[in-house]
Every structure is written in structure tokens, then in C-alpha cells.
TrEMBL record:
Alphabetical keyword list: DNA-binding, Transcription, Transcription regulation
DNA-binding is among the record's keywords: yes
Protein origin, superkingdom: Bacteria
Gene3D superfamilies named among the record's database cross-references: Transcription factor LuxR-like, autoinducer-binding domain, Winged helix-like DNA-binding domain superfamily/Winged helix DNA-binding domain
InterPro entries with a match to the protein in the record: Sig_transdc_resp-reg_C-effctor, TF_LuxR_autoind-bd_dom, TF_LuxR_autoind-bd_dom_sf, Tscrpt_reg_LuxR_C, WH-like_DNA-bd_sf
Organism: Asticcacaulis currens
Name by which UniProt lists this protein: Autoinducer binding domain-containing protein
SUPFAM superfamilies, per database record: C-terminal effector domain of the bipartite response regulators, Pheromone-binding domain of LuxR-like quorum-sensing transcription factors
Record-annotated HTH luxR-type domain positions: 179-244
Record bears the keyword Transcription: yes
Amino acid sequence: MLYANGEYSLEQFIEDTSRVRSVERLFEVFIEAMANLGFDRVNFSVMRDLDLDASAQGFGLISTYPAVWQDYYAHNGLARIDPVVKWAVGSVRPFRWNDIEHQTELTRRQRHFLREAEEGGLYNGIGVPFPGPRTLRGGIALATSVRRARQMENLDVLAAYCHQFYVVYKRLVPPGLRLSPAAAALTRTEQDVLMRIAHGLSNEVIADRLGIKAGSVDFHVQNIFRKLRVNNRTAAATKGLMGGYIEL
């Protein structure tokens, strides 16, 4: 047995996931495994993995975060200031959310964001990035629904569970069109629009800022969604930041 926490060892997880034959079942096994390790809040995203089928990429492919928090995050365009996202972009190792405050200079709004996340039911947050050769491929965010919760302390072993999950996920994804840099390239105007989406601005405000019609902004937004393989503004902003399409 490589590592045991409660009743679910890493060895057993590897064995279980090796027998999985569908992405849906893999998600179920992974959520159950994380719950056994003390994390009942899970968010899995693939933002820019050039080896992965484009249809298998997106923000929140798994999300057991509270619906109220997800709506609040999206409505307020919090991807633009989320320090967890920013930290994950430059990280190759798993990290604790509360370590970010001690290891980097955060704005008052970013510190407030971390407190809001706790109020929204996300405690003891952990980030497990999947780094690529140039930028972040994606990652998994884990948290608990209560402050005082027993959870795995060894981040390297926890990351081993997550990376095993990702390896199996990539194996199960059906073959199809691949996402290439050329296919996902954004025009300068699309980058400008996406930047303002990340700041939480509406189409009307973006149109005023860029000096173009609101209908033109909507056209660019739809192109952004299509190129980034997303279907909402939060996912577009997050993928834009994590994938290196834009910088704030």
C-alpha cells in the first residue's frame, strides 16, 4: 500500500481508475476518492491542453462547488482578480490557498476574495496545477465545506491522486479534432474584448470603451466562445487568463 488515508489508498485508487471505461464513471470515482481524503468540494478544469481533444476542454468540467458561489463568481467577473487562478498559472507544484497570502503581495480586493470564498463554503483550499511546456494546461481545486475538517496533509501524495485522474481522463477522451494554436488564436480586438470580459464589464460598456457597436461586441464574444471552446463569460475569462491569451 503506497499511502492510506481512511479507507481509500492511492494504490486502490490507481487500480480502480485503471478499470474505468467512461469519463462519467471516472468523475464519480474521483469525487468519491477526494471525499474519502477529506475534500468534498472539487473543481476540475482543462484550459489549454494541445494534446487533448478540444471537446474535452473547459472550465468546471467537474464542479461540486456551491451553486450560490458559482453564480456569485460568474456574475461579478471574479476570474479577473482570483489569486488562486493567478498563482496556478506560474506554479508547477500543489499549493494551499492560504499560503498565497504569505508568499505574494495581494491587493485588498484579492484578500477579501479569499474571505468571501470561505463564506461561500470553501475552506482549506488546495490547488493542483497541470503545467504544460509553455503555460498551464489546467488543474484541480479542492476544498472542504467546513472549516474544521480532517483532510490529507501531504500535498505531493494528494497531487499523485489528481495526476492519476488526469492521465486516465486523457486516455478516455474520444479521438477528434485537436486544438491547435492557430485554431485558438484570438484577434487583437477579441483580446481587447476578452480582457474587458475578465474585468466583469457588460457588452454595452465594452462597446463604449472600445468605440464600437454593442452588436459588434456580441459578434466578437461569440467568436471568443467558439475559439476557446467555452459557453459562458466566466469560462472565457478564466481560460483566457490561465491559457495565456490575455494578462490583467
